[in-house]
Amino acid sequence: MIQLEVRPTPSRLMSVLSPVIALAFTVAVAAVLFAALGKDPVQGLRVFLVEPLRGARGLTELGLKATPLILCSLGLVLCYRSNVWNIGAEGQYLLGAITGGGLALWVTVAEVPMAPWAFFPLLVLAGALGGAAWAALVAFLRDRFNANEILVSLMLVYVANLLLSWLVFGPWKDPNGFNFPQTASFAAATEVPRLVRGMRLNWGFGVALAAAAATWVFLFRTYRGMQLQIGGSARAAARYAGFSSRWALWTSLLVSGGLAGVAGACEAAGPMGQLTPYVSNGYGFTAIIVAFVGRLHPLGCVLSSVLLSMFLIGGELAQSRVGLPAALSGVFQGVLLLSLLACDTLIQHRLRWAASR
Amino acid sequence: MTAPRLELRHVTKRFASLVANDDVALTVEPGEIHAVLGENGAGKSTLMKVVYGALRPDAGEILFDGVPVHVRSPHEARELGIAMVFQHFSLFDTLTVAENVWLGLSRGVRLQSVVDGIRAKAAEYGLELEPLRPVHTLSVGERQRVEIVRALLGNPRLLILDEPTSVLTPQAVERLFETLRKLAGTGCSILYISHKLDEIRALCHRCTVLRAGRVVGTTDPTRETTASLSRMMIGAEPPELPPRASTAGEVALRVRGLTLHRHDRFGVDLEGISLEVRAGEIVGIAGVSGNGQQELLGALSGEDPRAAPGEIELLGNAIGAMGAAARRGLGLHFVPEERLGRGAVPGLSLAHNLLLTRRESLRAMGWIDGRALNAQAEGIIDRFGVKAPGPAAPAKSLSGGNLQKYIVGREIDAVPKVLIVAQPTWGVDVGATAQIRRELLALRDAGCAVLVVSEELDELFEVADRLHVMAKGRLSPSIPTSAATVELIGEWMSGLWAPPADEAAAPATGAGR
User: Fold this and answer.
1) Both ends of chain B: CA-CA distance in Å?
2) Helix, strand and coil in chain A, % to nearest 5
3) Conformation bin of residue B306: beta by default, left when phi > 0, alpha when psi is -120 to 50
4) What share of chain B is helix, strand, coil (3-state, %, to 5)?
5) How far does Cα B231 stand from its chain's mean position?
6) pLDDT digit string (tens) for B310-320?
C-alpha cells in the first residue's frame, strides 16, 4: 500500500520537477490517445510538439497565440496571490475586445485620420479600461455585498459573451457583410503594428513581455506587491500590519481585468481585424491553467503560455493534418492541469511503501 | 521486577550537519512522572518526536515495556499506548471540540459517544470543557485542554506533554498537576517536557537534563534547588534582572470606558475598560485567557477599529477608530500572542517580515531596498541573539522562542513610544525569557510606556510596576505590584474585586516599588 507522508520541509527539487513530470505524463496520455484513435502516436506527437516550432512562421505564430495567454495569466497571478479568485478573465478579455474593437470600428466608420503608432496606445488604453470596468463590477459586488467573486466573475463571462453577440448581431453588424454576425473590417491604420515584417506577430507581444517584467517587479520588489501577497497568504498578519484587504481586492481585480482587456483589444485589432462572436479562443479560461502551470510566477507564466500555445496550435494542426478531433487540445490542457496539481502534492508530501494492514 | 515502561538506548538523530540527539539514554518507570529539562534547541522536542514515531532515529534502540520496538508513525505509537500533547495544537478552527477529537479516532465511532466520552473524561480529571463549542472560539488554554482530553481518551500508558503549563493560571496549573498525579497513580507514565524549574520540582519524580543534544545527567528534582537545576540546564547561573526603579512620566496610553460588543458568538464583550499607561512604566494585565484579552488587544492595536475615537488616546490623539498602520505611525507598537501567521508570515523570510511593521528600508514609490532590509534584519538578529541561519531564513524555520526574540526585537528596535506585548515569553526558554524581560525593562527605563498582557503571574510580578486583572470582559482597578500578592490576584481573576476605589481614579500611585 502506498502512503502519503508529510515532508519535514517542502522539496525544492519537486517544485521544479513537478511541471516536468506533469508534462511527461500528459505526453504519455497523448500518445495512448493517438493510438486509441488509430493514429500513429509518433506522428501525432510531432504535430503537437514539433510542428508548432518549425521556422520563423511557426515561432511567430506561437508568440502571437501566447500574447493573450501571457496577459490574462499575469493578472490572474496577481489575483490568486492575493487570494482573490477571479475566474472571469474570459469576460474581461471580451470587454476589452469590445471597447478596443469598438474604438477601431469608430475610427474606421468615421474615417478619422490616424497613424498606426498613434492608434496603438489608444487601443491598449481602451482595452484596459473595458476589462478593468468589467472586473470592477466583481470587486464592487464583493466589497459592498460580500458576493463570492468566483461565481460573480464566472457569470459575468456569459453576460460579456451575450453583450458581444448583441453588438455584432445588432448595432455593430457590417451593413455589407451579407448578414454575417461580424463588424466591418477595421481600417488598416488601426491594426496593431507588426513586430516582424511579413509575419502576424505584433507589438501586443512586446506589451505582454513588458507586463510580465512589470508584474515581477511589482510583486517581488515593491511594498505594495508585498502587501498584496501577505493579504492573500496570511490574513491575520496583514490585519496586524494594517494592510488594507480592500485595497488588495480592488488592485488585483482592476489590474487583472485591465490586462485581460488589453489582450482582447490586441486580438480584435490584431490578427482578427474585426469583431466576431469568436474573438476569444477561450484564452481567459486557458490562462487559469497557464497561471498554475507557471507556478503563479510572472516569468513562469511566459513559459507556460508558450507551452499552452503549442497545444492550441497543435490542436488545429492535428485537425487539419492528421484528422484528429480539435477537442484534443482541450483534453490535453485538462490532463496537464490535473497531473500538475497531483504532482504538486509531492512538494509537501512524499510517497512511502507500507505493508498493508 | 517489572521492565521499565520506556527505555531509550544510544538514541542519535542528525539533521544534516546538526546533531539534535547524541547518544541519549532515558528510562521511565511505570507510573513515573519523568521530566525532560533543557533550553530551547537542546533537543527535547526531537527526542519526543522520536519516541512518538514522528521522526526516525539514525541510531539507537527504543524498548517499550521491555520489548524492542520500532515506532514508525504516530499511529503506531498510539497503538502501543503512547499519546502526546504537542506545544503547537493541531486543531481545526471551524470544527467543534468533539468533531476535532472524532477526526482522530478510528472509523465507526458515533459523534454522540465522543461527546459523552469527552464529558466523562473531563469530569473525571476536573478539566472544564464544552464538547460542542467550535475551536476558533476557545482560548489557547482551553485548546490545550482539548488536546489533553483527546490524549486521555485513548487510555494511554505513556503520556508525553510538551510545555503544557505555559498558558495556565496558577490555580489551573495546580489542577493540571492533580490530574497528572491522578493519572500517574493509575500506572500511566508521564514524560513532562519543560524548562520551568519550580514546576518540575513540584511535580516530577525524576528529571533528565539535556544540553546541546546530550544527556547532562538524571536526578531527583525534589532534592535539587532551582539554581542547581538551572546550572545543569544552561551550564551557568540564570541571568539576573537589573535593579529597578521606575520613574513614571506623562500618560502615554489612556483607555476610558471602552465598551465593545463581541465580534462572534463566543467572544467576550468588553465593559467599561479604563486604564492608563505612563511613559517609563510597565503595566501588567493578568488573567486567564478568554476573558477579553484578545478583544482588548485587538481594540488597542487597531486590528479592530470599532471603538469610539475618544475611548482610546495615544499621546493625546484620539485613536479608537484608527487602523493599525496609522497607530503605528504615531508610535504604538504591538507584539501579538500568535507569532506565526499574525506576528510573522510563516513562508516569508525574516528580512521581509520586517515589512509588516517597519518601513525604514522602503524607498520612493514603495521600492524595497533589499540590501538595507537584510542589513536591518541582521542587526536585529545580532542585537537580540536570534539563532537563525540569516535574514533569508523563512520565519517558520525558527523555533518558537527564537521567532519571539526576533518579533520582540523588531518592535523594540523601532523605538516605540508605547509597546503592547501579549504573552511575551510563552514557550520561550529560560535564557531567552530573561533576555526578553530585560529588554522590556530597558525599554521602560528609556521612557517607553509598556503594557504587558500575560497569563504567567511570575512574569508579571517580575516586570510590571502596576497590575490589573482581566475577568469576564472587565478590568480590575490597578494595584502596585509591590502591594499585590498571588492570592489577591488569583481572587481577582475570578472577577471578585472591590468596587472601584480611589486607586482606580489615580492609577499613578503604582509607580515604582
Assistant:
1) 57
2) 75, 5, 25
3) alpha
4) 35, 25, 40
5) 23
6) 999 999 999 99
Q: Given pLDDT bands bounded at 50, 70 and 90, which one contains residue B508?
A: very low
B502: which 3 cell numbers? 480611589
Longest dimension (CA), chain A: 80
The CB density around residue B146, as the number of other CB atoms within 10 Å, is 25
| Pick among B342, B349, B421 to test the A interface (most A CBs inside 10 A) | B342
What are A179's three cell numbers?
Answer: 448578414
Tell me whether residues A236 and B357 touch, CB distance under 8 A: no
For chain A, say whether B367 makes contact (Cβ under 8 Å).
Answer: yes
Closest-CA distance of chain A to residue B79, Å: 13
**Interface predicted TM-score (ipTM) over 0.85:** no
Cut 0.90: pTM above it: no
Of B334, B347, B366, the CB nearest to A222: B366
Give, for B206, the enclosing helix (H) or strand (E). strand B206-211
Give the C-alpha separation, B119 to B125, whole Å.
10
Query: What's the maximum distance between 2 C-alpha atoms anywhere in chain B?
Result: 76
Residues 6+ apart with CB under 8 A from B54: B73, B74
What distance in Å separates the CA atoms of residue A351 and residue B93, rounded to the nearest whole number? 28
Which among B75, B272, B33 has a CA at the least distance from the CA of B160?
B33
Nearest alpha carbon to residue A309 among A53, A100, A113, A129:
A53
Alpha helix stretches (DSSP H) within B165-304: 170-185, 197-203, 226-234, 293-301
Handedness of CA B240, B245, B251, B256 (dihedral sign): positive
Question: Number of H helices and number of E strands within chain B?
Answer: 17, 21
All three cell numbers of A50, joined, read 514539433
Distance of CA A123 to the CA centre of its chain: 19
Residue whose grid cell is 535564557: B431
